[in-house]
Specification:
mainly alpha; 0% strand; globular
Length: 186
């Protein structure tokens, strides 16, 4: 019995900690997505987007929130290695929370590691398909990788979510590729 007690004291409590289930999408989240898509101007869309970011950056529990907040603070302080370490802990703890991947992707993008950024952005979008930040980041990463057609398509998908994104300045006409019938102008 003493050995069992000692073993329980020695093992870190994180072994037993698990990220809680993510709550279902809130009605407010859905409402904001609709309002942003129909916003009459850029300032309105920006104000609505800020509210949406508050939802996305509200982690499932205190542990996840501490990791997310610290990682974002480290990123803001240019401690990219520390930020990545926090986001990796967050992803390990809450693998179904899209913002951990999105934030790690942002660091990879800043470091110009666009392939790594794209992997994380794809995962964030699998978890939250209408994550505007991840969608626009995906478009920019594809463009930086020289995948212009895919980047332009991804940019149009992001702009369908928020037509007032600053990234709209990268929008260019799609070239028609008549060799592939699935590649038509959007």
């Amino acid at each position: 019995m003493i050995r069992l007690t000692l073993a329980l004291l020695i093992l870190p409590t994180a072994v037993w900690a698990t990220c809680p289930e993510l709550p279902p999408r809130s009605e407010r989240h859905s409402q904001l997505m609709q309002e942003i898509a129909q916003a009459p101007d850029e300032p309105t869309a920006r104000q609505l987007s800020n509210q949406l970011w508050e939802i996305w950056t509200t982690a499932p529990d205190v542990t996840a929130q501490e990791l997310l907040t610290r990682g974002m603070e480290r990123r803001a302080g240019y401690d990219f290695a520390g930020a990545v370490a926090d986001f990796e802990k967050l992803i390990a703890y809450c693998p179904n929370y899209a913002e951990g991947y999105n934030q790690r992707a942002f660091i990879s993008f800043i470091r110009q590691d666009y392939e790594a950024s794209l992997v994380d952005l794809e995962r964030a979008l699998e978890l939250t398909p209408d994550h505007i930040g991840a969608a626009s980041g995906r478009a920019l990463a594809l463009l930086q990788l020289g995948q212009n057609r895919q980047g332009q398509i991804a940019l149009r998908e992001a702009l369908a979510l928020n037509p007032w994104l600053s990234e709209r300045g990268y929008l260019q006409p799609l070239e028609n590729d008549t060799s592939d019938p699935d590649k038509t102008d959007l």
